[in-house]
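pls design
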C-alpha cells in the first residue's frame, strides 16, 4: 500500500482496540494510530501509559471515562474540530463495547467528524468463536444490571430468543448471575470463557445446573464471558429432562431400559450436543461428586 494511504486524516476519531490480556494481540495499525494521533484519550491513563510504554510510544494522553464523558467529550470534540486526530482506547479490548466511547461516537457524528474503527480484540467475539455454540446469529447482552428488577426484565425478554446470548460478568457476581440465568431461562448449555488470551484461559462447556454446582464448590476467579444457548424448541419431554443434571438424565434413560451407551446417545440427542460432550460432562459430574 502507498504511503499516502497510511497517512492519518486530521480531525478524525479513531476507535483503537487494544489487547484483552495477551499483549501480542495489538494490530500494526493500532500501534501506528497510537503513534501518529495528536492525542490519545484513555479510560485509565495509567493503564494506557503502561501499554504505550510497552509499545515504546510516547504520546499525549488524556482521560475519557464514564464519569467525565460529557465534559471530556466536549473537550475532545473541540480538539477534533480544530483538526486534531484523537485515538480513543479503553482499558482492554474494543472501545464502546461495554466501555466508554458510544457517546463520543454520537457526538462526532453530530458534528460531522469522521469516526474510524481500528478493530482488534474483543472478549465477546473471542469467546463466541471458540465456544462451540452457534455463531450464525447471536446477541450481545453486555453486563446484567445490578438491580434485581432490571436484570429480571432483561432476562425475561430473552426467554424465547433462539440465538446464542453473550454476557459479560465480574467474578464476584458470577454465582448470582448463573442462578438468575437458570431461574429465568431454565437449564441450557452454557459456556464460561474465562481469562481469554491469558495464561489461565479456560472454556467450561456445561449445562447451567452443572455450572451452578461447580461454582458452589469453587471460587470464581478472573474475567468471564458467559455464552448461553438460545431457546432450542425442544419436545415437551426433552424440556423436562434437560433440567436434570447429565448423570440424572442418563439414569432416566437407563431406567427406561436403554444400555448405558444408548442412554448417553439419547441424552446427546435431547441436548443437541455430541455423544463425546455428554461422556465428558458425565465424567466431570462424577469427579465433582
Ligand atoms: N471493551 C471490552 C471488550 O471489547 O471486550 C470489554 C470491557 S468490559 C468493561 C470488561 C468485561 O469484558 C469483563 O468483565 C469480562 O466480562 C469481559 N472481558 C474482558 N477481558 C476478558 C478476558 N480476557 N477474558 C474474559 N472476559 C473478558
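designed seq:
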Amino acid at each position: 500500500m502507498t504511503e499516502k494511504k497510511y497517512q492519518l486524516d486530521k480531525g478524525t476519531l479513531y476507535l483503537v482496540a487494544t489487547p484483552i490480556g495477551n499483549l501480542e494481540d495489538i494490530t500494526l495499525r493500532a500501534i501506528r494510530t497510537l503513534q501518529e494521533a495528536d492525542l490519545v484519550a484513555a479510560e485509565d491513563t495509567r493503564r494506557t501509559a503502561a501499554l504505550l510504554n510497552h509499545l515504546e510510544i510516547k504520546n499525549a494522553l488524556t482521560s475519557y471515562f464514564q464519569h467525565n464523558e460529557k465534559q471530556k467529550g466536549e473537550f475532545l470534540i473541540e480538539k477534533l474540530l480544530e483538526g486534531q486526530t484523537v485515538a480513543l482506547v479503553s482499558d482492554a479490548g474494543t472501545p464502546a463495547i461495554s466501555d466508554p466511547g458510544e457517546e463520543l461516537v454520537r457526538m462526532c457524528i453530530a458534528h460531522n467528524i469522521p469516526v474510524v474503527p481500528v478493530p482488534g480484540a474483543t472478549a465477546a467475539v473471542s469467546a463466541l468463536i471458540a465456544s462451540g455454540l452457534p455463531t450464525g446469529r447471536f446477541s450481545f447482552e453486555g453486563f446484567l444490571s445490578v438491580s434485581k428488577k432490571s436484570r429480571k426484565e432483561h432476562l425475561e425478554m430473552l426467554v424465547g430468543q433462539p440465538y446464542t446470548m453473550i454476557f459479560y460478568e465480574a467474578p464476584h457476581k458470577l454465582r448470582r448471575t448463573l442462578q438468575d440465568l437458570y431461574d429465568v431461562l431454565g437449564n441450557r448449555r452454557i459456556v464460561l470463557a474465562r481469562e481469554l488470551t491469558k495464561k489461565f484461559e479456560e472454556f467450561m462447556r456445561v449445562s447451567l445446573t452443572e455450572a451452578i454446582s461447580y461454582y458452589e464448590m469453587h471460587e470464581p476467579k478472573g474475567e468471564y464471558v458467559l455464552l448461553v444457548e438460545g431457546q432450542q424448541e425442544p419436545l415437551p419431554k426433552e424440556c423436562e429432562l434437560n433440567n436434570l443434571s447429565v448423570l440424572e438424565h442418563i439414569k432416566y434413560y437407563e431406567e427406561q431400559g436403554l444400555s448405558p451407551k444408548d442412554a448417553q446417545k439419547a441424552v446427546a440427542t435431547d441436548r443437541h450436543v455430541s455423544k463425546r460432550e455428554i461422556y465428558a460432562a458425565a465424567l466431570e459430574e462424577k469427579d465433582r461428586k
